[in-house]
Design a protein that fits this description.
By secondary structure, the protein is an alpha+beta fold. It is built from 15 helices and 10 strands. The chain starts with 15 loop residues before the first helix and ends with a helix. It binds (R)-mevalonate (MEV).
Length: 428
């Protein structure tokens, strides 16, 4: 490809102590950004974030290279403890890059806020009354009410549903109000919860009922993101086996079908996707539990849990992959602004909007999924996994400094990656 930016794959070739400086050059980071990454969250900052703080807890931050999303080179920071995730994603991004990179689109960032209304005398009448009052309620929330008025975000709709469930010996009918809220570049949880609370007296007056819960839904299915990519069969040639790329393409398609059909496999397949998405979510200070919850609920939307991605062979014999999922990620508000490393992570990515962030995250998820199923459908994941895993085992056994590489190497050579063996090697 001629029109793609130059690959930024040099990071892994430089010693660890020089990598941050190289990254600073690559991503135009300021000295303050570098210091933020180097120092991380201060004890004082941590104390303002959650309760009963006694310490901070560090994890590795690695950088995905080779990633091209919508024609733009992106360095994606990942915070993760698991070996092979960063390397796998960078490798997948390199192959996808040769096929034109990732193309991704995110829907408008519409969140759902839910209000549970009980003891409603006539649910149909209440639904009608709320529908008629909706334009005025939206105007009140967006323009008149100083608590819910916000220059960057706004309520865009109010919908109602009627559901029933068996209570203790009696059927409980509920009117459920969905407040649709454009969260702009934020994830939006606090704003939507504020709006739902502010609306309570108005909904109670309109319905004649009693509002119980008021909280966002993490099934943000108006806020979908899609990404796709192509991996050339020529890049999947198995040199050792002396075969073309086609058998590997076919095996990856078979792996995809397995996950599409079987919930046991889909869960693991989706876990691999979330290895990538969560790692970027954590690096950027996003609520990864919310993203996880939404992803798995969306994967079950037909009533049967299935995979979030799909891999097929195209007319040229190349592999094509796509992902679709809700992704409530923001770049303003919450920890994204408070955590200094999260702010620096967003700068590394060079994303300008929450939608762009979601597009990169979905591309990372698709890349991660490809890396996992390509390995599983060819040599298996253990080979690539083992040397880093062995280092972790060596460290867990008490190895320090040069001992780590030495012990890890021996563990891999022996094919016994166990802490008891690492301890023996250290003792001997
Ligand atoms: C391991 O963290 C993730 C995988 O299990 C994903 C998959 O099986 O597709 C390798």
């Amino acid at each position: 490809m001629t029109n793609q930016p130059t690959p930024k794959s040099k990071l892994r070739d430089v010693p660890v102590q020089d990598r941050l400086n190289l990254l600073a050059q690559m991503a135009n980071l300021s000295e303050a950004d570098v210091a933020a990454l180097r120092n991380g969250l201060s004890f004082e900052q941590a104390d303002h974030m959650v309760e009963n703080v006694v310490a901070t807890y560090a994890l590795p931050l690695g950088i995905v290279t080779n990633l091209v999303v919508n024609g733009r080179e992106v360095l994606a920071p990942m915070v993760i403890e698991e070996p092979s995730v960063v390397a796998g994603c960078s490798f997948a991004a390199k192959l996808a890059r040769a096929g034109g990179g990732f193309t991704a689109t995110a829907d408008a960032p519409i969140m759902i806020g839910q209000m549970q209304v009980l003891d409603v005398p006539d649910i149909n009448q209440a639904r009608q009354a709320i529908a008629e009052a909706t334009p005025e309620l939206i105007e009140w929330l967006n323009v008149q009410n100083p608590i819910t008025r916000d220059p960057y975000t706004r309520t865009v709709g109010i919908e109602t549903r009627s559901i029933s469930g068996m209570g203790v010996g009696t059927v409980i009918h509920m009117l459920i109000v969905h407040v649709l809220y454009d969260a702009g570049d934020a994830m939006g949880a606090n704003m939507i919860n504020t709006v739902c609370e502010a609306l309570t007296p108005r909904i109670e007056a309109l319905s004649g009922g009693r509002v119980n819960l008021r909280i966002l839904s993490n099934l943000a299915d108006h806020r979908l993101v899609r990404a796709k990519c192509r991996v050339l069969a020529a890049d999947l040639v198995d040199e050792k086996a002396g075969t073309s790329g086609l058998p590997v393409v076919n095996r990856i398609v078979e792996a995809s079908l397995f996950a599409e059909i079987d919930p046991y496999r889909a869960t693991t397949h989706n876990k691999g996707i979330m290895n990538g998405i969560d790692a970027v979510a954590i690096a950027t200070g996003n609520d990864w539990r919310a993203i996880e919850a939404g992803a798995h609920a969306y994967a079950s939307r037909t009533g049967r849990y299935t995979s979030l991605t799909r891999w097929r062979i195209n007319d040229e014999g190349d592999l094509t992959g796509e992902i679709e999922m809700p992704l409530a990620a923001g770049m303003v508000g919450g920890a994204t602004r408070v955590h200094p490393s999260a702010r620096a992570a967003l700068k590394i990515m060079g994303v300008k909007t929450g939608r762009e962030l979601a597009e990169v995250m979905a591309s990372v998820g698709l890349a991660q999924n490809f890396a996992a199923i390509r390995a599983l459908a060819s040599e298996g994941i253990q080979r690539g996994h083992m040397s880093l895993h062995a280092r972790q085992v060596a460290m867990a056994a008490g190895a320090n400094g040069d001992q780590i590489e030495r012990v890890a190497k021996q563990l891999v050579q022996e094919g016994i990656i166990r802490i008891d063996r690492a301890k023996e090697i250290l003792a001997g």
